[in-house]
Specification:
It holds the Pfam family UPF0004. Its cofactor is [4Fe-4S] cluster. The protein is α/β, with parallel strands linked by helices. The chain is 34% helix and 23% strand. Among the domains are: 158 residues, Methylthiotransferase, N-terminal domain (Rossmann fold), CATH 3.40.50.12160; 56 residues, OB fold (Dihydrolipoamide Acetyltransferase, E2P). Helix 2 links the parallel strand 2 and strand 3. The termini are close together. Bound molecules: S-adenosyl-L-homocysteine, iron/sulfur cluster (SF4) and FE3-S4 cluster (F3S). The site of S-adenosyl-L-homocysteine has 18 residues, from strand 16.
Amino acid sequence: MSQPLLTLDFLDTPAAPAAADHQPAQDVRVSPATRTGRQRKLYIESYGCQMNFSDSEIVSSILFEEGFDTTEQLADADLVLLNTCSIREKAEQTVRMRLSQINSHKKRNPGLLVGVLGCMAERLKSKFLEEEKLVDLVVGPDAYRDLPNLIREVDGGQKAVNVLLSRDETYADITPVRLNSNGITAFVSIMRGCDNMCSFCVVPFTRGRERSRDAHSIVQECRDLVAQGYKEVTLLGQNVDSYKWTSEDGQEFVNFAQLLERVALISPELRVRFSTSHPKDITDEVLYTMGKYENICKYIHLPAQSGNSRVLKLMNRTYDRPWYEERVQAIRRILGDDCAISTDMISGFCSETEEEHLETLSLIDFVQYDMGYNFFYSERPGTLAARKLADDVPLEVKKRRLQEVIDRQQLHARARYARMVGRVHRVLVEGRSKRSEEQLSGRNSQNQVVIFPKGTAQKGDYVNVLVTSTTGAALLGEIV
Ligand code: SAH
Ligand code: SF4
Ligand code: F3S
């Protein structure tokens, strides 16, 4: 089949700001229904990052044991839970608006219980419970095991709160109810919390200290997924490269590279992804491990946040630009040019000058990212930056710089897609394409979306696809 290497779409369509699974997305996920005849119905909406989506699966598992099925219909629910995100002000506003909608629904259905979970829980517990009287239940990310007790309290007519953070909770023994899944790809949390204290970031406050989950329980969960027909796992943590676990008797130590290897060895048919990598922690050992196993996907989310060393210092990222560039060169050296790299950038951080912003653009040119998740700075109460630095870049300037970052990033994303045209890619089929019933959609190792006529292939198959064109946000081709 002859097709132009680049279709016109490539020129016309803006590259979609695809919300990657690990990424704080503006969107919300409603957990789908489980119908097992449980007495009560739980409706759960999740905001923010993949950690939250993954936690909602743990919550559903805990509440399933307590007699709750999930429902996709708010109208059918006995219990409504919002799993919330605090990362930027806008994320919190979205949840607040949603809560007031749910509250008017509750006025018509007085028996309905409403709870707030996740990252807003700690910060806003008193506001939710006392001032606004919006919710019955507030539960922080480390207290989900307490949900059955808390719900009993609420059933007894009280309000209930538990926002205690833990130093060791990893929910290692809880098998998540796979709500967010297509039956092919699954997310596996390998650690919780974060100790990094980036000055802009609320996560260390909302999710507490960093702790790594028992390596054996991670490997077992992945094995179970393979036995159920899953073909891809994404190992999740705020900072996966600082994963470290020691057995209780002190005899066994596992770092991230070793964990990655153990998971990769479960089956060559199981793809392994991970997110997020902190540039200060990603080691050559991890890169060599990625190179050694075909089934470890060649894609690294390596958020830079800024291209300027002074700003990085103010952000407390603990690396500077030369360090970051060296890590990118190590990726290119060890894994080659095909390894995809993505970033998060923050525009308009405290005192960022125009020249410093231009350095972010030049870093984007240096790395030629495959994808970028870019934001303008949003001050978060309680963070180091909020306490010590002035949020002094005007909003219009933040937004203009952000647009320049997005535009620059899209140029490179399109070029990275374009260079894949004319090559054969191994694609894991994830399901039907949104465009058409006749097309399937999957991803290549680099995490790029590939769309092709279905032929005889099915969800869960690996197929070789010759890519013949790109839209700039997806690759189009045919099975060979
Ligand atoms: N642990 C990951 C980031 C998790 S938060 C890491 O260290 O890379 C996801 C992204 O949200 C961050 O990478 C950052 O770009 C963005 N972010 C976090 N706090 C923010 C804030 N206050 N304003 C704007 N963006 C923010
Ligand atoms: Fe936030 Fe930094 Fe931790 Fe990422 S590494 S979650 S940006 S504090
Ligand atoms: Fe994730 Fe948002 Fe919390 S990005 S860790 S849900 S603040």
